[in-house]
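Backbone-to-sequence.
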């Protein structure tokens, strides 16, 4: 199988299999312009150029930039300088007040949105490894661990939003799965927190839970 590498924040990550790389692309963990490489390529290429080979179809381009703010036209002639000055001052005070109110509402909402997006990205990044757990369980009749062939140390699975992944059996439920540690520097409500992904072979279903507050988690991971 072909090993792939990808560049993120000036660092090389990998090796990963094609399915894992495609999963990172679908989850948004890597972007169309992210540089990727495999043996046989003369140089690093954008992910979008490798989309067909990775089975991604057409990778959407980056989001467009925010359009420039329209400039208001000059006031009509004939007004006295005094009236215009009063109008400008009054309008400026109203604008400052309105911006303050909007900021008080928008900033916390944006912070919550950022935390939810980061948590979802970390969970999706960990879900890329679910198929190998199911395959190992089906072949060997037991849960894989990081010491088994085909697996590696927990930190080898570090990525943009995950610091490590530990494979094994959950003591409380005796189910197979993995524990992913979220990597979110500067975001104390997420950084270092665990996400548990458990596989119930009897119903062929993955369960998700976490120590993170429910409001920052996808609905299927809330307790």
């Amino acid at each position: 199988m072909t090993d792939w590498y990808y560049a993120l924040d000036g660092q090389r990550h990998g090796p990963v299999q094609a399915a894992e790389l495609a999963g990172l692309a679908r989850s948004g963990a890597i972007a169309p312009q992210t540089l990727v490489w495999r043996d046989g390529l003369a140089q690093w290429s954008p992910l979008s150029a490798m989309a067909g080979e990775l089975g991604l179809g057409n990778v959407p381009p980056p989001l467009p930039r925010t359009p420039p703010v329209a400039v208001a036209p000059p006031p009509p002639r004939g007004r006295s300088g005094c009236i215009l000055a009063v109008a400008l001052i009054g309008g400026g005070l109203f604008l400052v007040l309105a911006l303050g109110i909007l900021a008080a509402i928008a900033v916390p909402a944006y912070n919550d949105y950022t935390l939810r997006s980061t948590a979802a990205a970390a969970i999706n990044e960990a879900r890329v490894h679910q198929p190998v757990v199911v395959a190992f369980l089906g072949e060997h009749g037991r849960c894989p661990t990081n010491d088994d062939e085909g697996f590696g140390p927990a930190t080898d699975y570090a990525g943009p939003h995950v610091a490590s992944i530990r494979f094994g059996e959950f003591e409380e439920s005796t189910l197979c799965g993995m524990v992913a540690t979220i990597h979110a520097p500067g975001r104390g409500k997420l950084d270092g927190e665990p996400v548990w992904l458990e596989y119930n072979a009897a119903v062929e279903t993955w369960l998700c839970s976490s120590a993170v507050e429910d409001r920052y988690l996808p609905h299927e991971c809330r307790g």
